[in-house]
UniProtKB/TrEMBL annotation:
PANTHER family: SUFE-LIKE PROTEIN 2, CHLOROPLASTIC (PTHR43597:SF5), SULFUR ACCEPTOR PROTEIN CSDE (PTHR43597). It comes from the Bacteria. Coiled coil: none annotated. Residues 16-137 form the Fe-S metabolism associated domain. Gene3D superfamilies: 3.90.1010.10. Belongs to the SufE family. This is Cysteine desulfuration protein SufE. Pfam families: SufE.
Length: 145
């Protein structure tokens, strides 16, 4: 994979969104919101370990783990914030299990490429972009440690 090439998991998610009409894209985003994995007990019992993504209107928290070269992303967002929760779920499902290099190579503008810029506010897209940015920053910090 070359730098700024989209990993297959995220490319498939992007392509699935782009294959749909605008209204159907929102429905798919809601499906992702409902599929956000629960936090493992080590985080649900210690929310202080998670980092809040301040750029998001809704309280979204993330944590990145590195197991060798494999990345695991965990996130939580309130059920009453389905758009934000959907974006978090896209990233968790698309990133979890990738290698460090694959995650760091994800284009920063990935959130702009999934066909939702006309369906949701620019502020929400910026929130997803911030989630991705914080994920990469945490990943770099974990690898450097």
């Amino acid at each position: 994979m070359t730098e700024n090439q989209l990993p297959a998991t995220l490319a498939e998610i992007r392509d699935d969104f782009l294959a749909l009409e605008q209204r159907e894209r929102l429905e798919m985003l809601l499906e992702f919101a409902n599929e956000l994995p629960e936090l493992p007990p080590r985080y649900s019992e210690h929310p202080d370990l998670l980092e809040r993504v301040e750029e998001c209107q809704s309280p979204v928290f993330i944590f990145v783990e590195v197991d060798g070269v494999v990345v695991h992303l965990y996130a939580t967002a309130p059920r009453e914030a389905p758009t934000t929760r959907g974006f978090a779920s896209i990233l968790v499902q698309g990133i979890d299990g990738l290698t460090v290099d694959e995650v760091l190579g994800i284009p920063d503008d990935f959130p702009n490429t999934i066909g939702l810029t006309e369906a949701v506010s620019l502020l929400r897209i910026r929130g997803m972009t911030a989630m991705l940015g914080r994920t990469k920053r945490q990943l770099r910090e974990r690898v450097a440690a």
